[in-house]
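Milestone M4 deliverable, item 7.
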Amino acid sequence: MQFIIKTILGLYEKFSPIKRWLPLLFILLTALILYHHQIDRQSLWIDELYSVRDVKTGKGFPPQNLIRPIYYLLLSVWMKFGNSDAWLRSLASFFGIGSIFLTYLISCRLSSKLEGYIAAILLTLSPLFVYHSQQVRMYSLTTFSGLLGTLFMIQVLERPSNFAMAWWAVFRLISILTLPLNVTLIFADLFLVIIKFRGQYNVVIKFAKWLLIMCVVWSPLLLLKLIPATRNFSTDPVQQSRPSPNIVNCIRFLREFVVLPPFLADNVNPDNSLIWVYRIITLSLIILVGIALVTALRKENSSKTLWVAAWGFLPVMQIFLASNLFFSIWLDRYLLFTVPYFLILLASALVKVWHRNTIIALIIIFLYGLAVFNGLSNYYRADLHRDFRGMVHMIKTHEKDDDIVVWAIESWINTLPLFHYDHGSAEIVVAPRPPSSRTKLKEGSMEDWFEELPATKSRLWLLCKLNSKNEEVFNNIVTQMYQIKAHQRFKDQNGKLNYHVFLVLPTHHQG
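Output delivered:
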């Protein structure tokens, strides 16, 4: 018996280092499950298709792309091992999981393990972060690389050395070459160095040297590519129509990134009691961030909390200001790299509330759990992408020789979905979207649209977007001019069945 007890104690001591990592491993395993759950449920959306196209054509690589080539270089390697939607998206999911690990490390480094666990859990369960970690886009990578740079920046602030500064410069440059908006983190870094080492000019000069090296490397890319690209981006009609952010957007910011993404907000019924849960959570999140800041300002040893606040607030303030002075770049995917810092602040405040009043902390945790469970449930059910895969699959499974595909979707959506999902060998004809205004319909423009279709005896695949204004007129004309062999409706990005695929034969066709 004594031997058994000694053996058990020996095993316990042997595995005690592993035991310390079990909570974090459980969090990362949860993230692995969530971030890969239904990862290919929806088709790639148009920006994801652009990512794949830019790798295949080389447009994503230097010298064609000097603005943000890092993600495309990594994706090109990833695509050598597979090209399914799930595989393509899994690259972003691993950077998302890596971001959770780095958030934990940063929080532990600056405060405690408990706060590190809480911050990691908040990021793991964020529906918006899950969404961006399931896309063939660079937004989880830019968060990951930004956090790596911040980890070395902490080393610079605690024990400045050329080694730490060099790696800080490397990862800040990588994050900028992944998403240029990461440059806003450098202003926060510079601010912290000046405040921290205001009496130690040798440290400031040493840091400035590495900052200068990074700027020298990046400045040609900035002057040659980024400034012209920004000018073109700002004149795009979509960008010009986007409203500038206001104080309401700032208030909603935390709620959107913690429990309720903007694309799920419409799913919450205003008459439902759940709307009050989200309102209380929104208020609670704002108060918690306030508690973290006030506590940090009052206590002598809380300067590290202010570091986190600088990495969170200063980039957001810069983006807010630029969006109001020039053109709006206030988009959740562009702000994603700032989220971990706010979650670290929330974790810090929640621990303080727990120590002061456990009941209030439990209420906040309960409401958060309710809200985030609802947010994740809605996310995994929501239709957020156009069903390109379904449309192309219908063609692919029924295609015959000499078929012609008429692509009449929105003008800004090109034929990439047909090639990515391999529609087959049918000829593709691009046509404008069927007219939908009542004025044009009265003028007979729908008849004119059909007259412009290819004059052929072959079968036609008509892929088009219709709505309540033109669907009846379209159906009447297509029935008169063609034999409808098949017709199926597909969902748009709002879950509405507005996309149609018709397989038709001209009425003069024989056999």
